[in-house]
Amino acid sequence: MDRYLLPCRCGRTVPVEPRQAGETVVCRCGARLSVPSMLEIKSLEPAPSESVAVRPAEVWGWRQLLKLLGVLLLLEAVASWALLARPTSRFQELSPEEVKRNAHQMTPAQAWDHWQWARQGLDRRTDQKYAAAVERYQIWRVVLVFIPALAGVGIIALAMMRRGP
């Protein structure tokens, strides 16, 4: 297909085809250019063939790289949230043999206290060790989830901003 370069007053050229004769095209600078008739188009400078020229849509620019970085940060935030959101108990940290050995060594009063502790659940405990663990969890949630998620959204928004004239 034949393509020709329509000059603009800014110094750039806009590639046009004979089928666009009589239409109006817009240059990168924002100027509106009238495409000449089919006979007059042939007098314009021919555009380089597409096999030599690289189409801008096929090239990854900084915008596409920023979008990819933003998506990767969002995925990291989701993975971290999935890891941090799962509840754990101290029984998950002990092997089954240790649980059996400890259960057999407990007095009935110790077993009762342990049952009361387990019955409270993870979110209603008030001991210092649990409070420190909750504080560490809150800090890591901010570091591993919210900061990358906000950075990812910000980077994607930056990459999607329109180009200026």
Q: What does this 3D model show about the protein?
A:
This protein has 165 residues and is mostly helical. It has helices spanning 38-41, 62-84, 90-93, 96-105, 108-120, 128-159, and strands at residues 4-7, 13-16, 24-26, 32-34, 45-46. The strands form two sheets. The chain has a three-stranded antiparallel sheet, with no helix packed on it. It has a two-stranded antiparallel ribbon with strand order 3-4. α2 (62-84) packs antiparallel against α6. The longest helix has 32 residues, at 128-159. The chain is rod-shaped.
Tell me briefly what this model is.
The chain is mainly α and 165 residues long.
What order do the helices and strands come in, and which of them pair?
Blueprint: E1 4-7, E2 13-16, E3 24-26, E4 32-34, H1 38-41, E5 45-46, H2 62-84, H3 90-93, H4 96-105, H5 108-120, H6 128-159
Antiparallel strand pairs: 1-2, 1-5, 3-4
How large is the radius of gyration?
33 Å
Secondary-structure element order, N to C = EEEEHEHHHHH
Helical segment count: 6
Tally of individual domains: 2
Question: How large a portion of the residues is in β-strands, by DSSP E?
Answer: 5-15%
How many strand segments?
A: 5
Regions with little confidence, pLDDT below 50 for 5+ residues: none
Strand line-up of the largest beta sheet? 2-1-5
